[in-house]
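To illustrate the input format used throughout this study, we show a single complete record. The first block contains the structure-token representation of the backbone; no residue identities are included at this stage. The design step must infer an amino acid for every position from geometry alone.
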């Protein structure tokens, strides 16, 4: 036996090393085989133990989730999780001989043995079945409803995590609130488009102009247009920073000089989606030129948040309900409390001004000079 120069010890070398450690001492074994070999042998041993613990934990959690999926009547999810549990058990069993050999028993298996590879393959197959065949959210709601196949998600609290349907037994209005979430919760989708002001004959960063777009989708429901029915927020900050978001909702009052925020909103275009199922908000990068100059940056993050109140701000879904009816809705715990009560539908885009220091300065000078004399 000689000290390893590269790679890990073979099965036979690792077995002989551990036998030597058992018959003598670890210090004697290190002196015989070398420090590098001993380190690599320990690496195999502790990696195997970590893999065993991870596999056992994953098998336990997947098994518990399988049990509750079965109780909820979600056959697709239960089948997939059962297969994944079997895969985790296989990967755990594969590592046991590597651990047993350190106490002088067992036959060592390579960490990438056929059993380990087969176990990983079974895990992937199980989760593929889970994600393909599990109940869709509306199916899960119908199944857990008071008249469903498995009312209240089986009617018991979960050992691990929360059964979000458990609270429906004491607060049936939460079931209706959750249905509103599934049917009418708003969605915000942001994107950036670019055009080249020089046409197709000249390409280059200086010739690109970017436009920001936010599409607010409200499936099947468009609340009233009054401020009591919606809340919307546009905010910016320099990209790749953790600065506080600067909200752009304010606008100048009558007789007050226009501000940078007014420059932004003057250039915003809002159009309704077909069927009044939402709206699109679009703006040119020049709407943000004052902020590129203020922050002295070339890239800004723009975040849009939206929330709807189908019955008005402060209203509940029923007179006896304890929670305000607003959408989107956060995840509930088993007591019915919202784990994240201040949830918004939101998305963030990044606008990059490609000619910063050239067009921006001249535009700012003329634009802000003009706005100094502009009032409502």
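Output of the design step:
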């Amino acid at each position: 036996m000689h000290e390893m120069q590269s790679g890990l010890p073979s099965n036979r070398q690792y077995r002989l090393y551990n036998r030597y450690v058992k018959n003598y001492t670890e210090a004697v074994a290190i002196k015989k085989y070398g420090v590098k070999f001993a380190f690599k042998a320990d690496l195999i041993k502790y990696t195997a133990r970590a893999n065993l613990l991870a596999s056992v934990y994953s098998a336990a959690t997947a098994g518990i989730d399988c049990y509750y999926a079965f109780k909820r009547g979600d056959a697709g999810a239960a089948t997939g999780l059962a297969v994944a549990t079997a895969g985790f058990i296989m990967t755990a069993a594969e590592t046991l001989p590597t651990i047993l050999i350190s106490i002088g028993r067992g036959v060592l298996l390579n960490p990438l043995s056929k059993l380990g590879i087969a176990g990983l393959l079974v895990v992937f197959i199980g989760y593929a079945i889970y994600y393909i065949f599990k109940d869709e959210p509306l199916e899960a709601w119908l199944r857990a409803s008071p008249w469903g196949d498995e009312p209240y998600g089986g009617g018991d609290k979960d050992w691990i995590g929360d059964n979000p349907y458990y609270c429906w037994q004491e607060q049936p209005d939460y079931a209706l609130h959750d249905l509103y979430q599934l049917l009418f919760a708003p969605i915000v989708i942001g994107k950036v488009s670019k055009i080249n002001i020089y046409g197709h004959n000249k390409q280059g960063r200086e010739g690109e102009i970017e436009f920001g777009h936010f599409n607010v989708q409200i499936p099947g429901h468009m609340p009233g247009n009054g401020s009591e029915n919606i809340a919307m927020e546009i905010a910016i900050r320099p990209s790749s920073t953790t600065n506080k978001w600067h909200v752009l909702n304010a606008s100048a009052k009558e007789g007050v000089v226009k501000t940078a925020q007014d420059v932004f909103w003057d250039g915003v275009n809002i159009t309704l989606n077909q069927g009044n199922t939402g709206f699109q908000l679009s703006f040119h990068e020049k709407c943000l030129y004052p902020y590129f100059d203020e922050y002295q940056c070339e890239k800004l993050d723009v975040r849009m948040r939206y929330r709807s109140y189908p019955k008005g701000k402060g209203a509940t879904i029923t007179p006896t309900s304890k929670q305000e009816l607003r959408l989107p809705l956060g995840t509930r715990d088993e007591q019915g409390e919202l784990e994240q009560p201040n949830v918004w539908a939101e998305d963030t885009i990044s606008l990059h001004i490609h000619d910063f220091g050239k067009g921006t300065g001249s535009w700012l000078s003329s634009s802000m000079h003009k706005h100094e004399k502009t009032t409502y």
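Structural context for interpreting the output: The first helix runs from residue 11 to 23. The CA atoms of residues 3 and 16 lie 13 Å apart.
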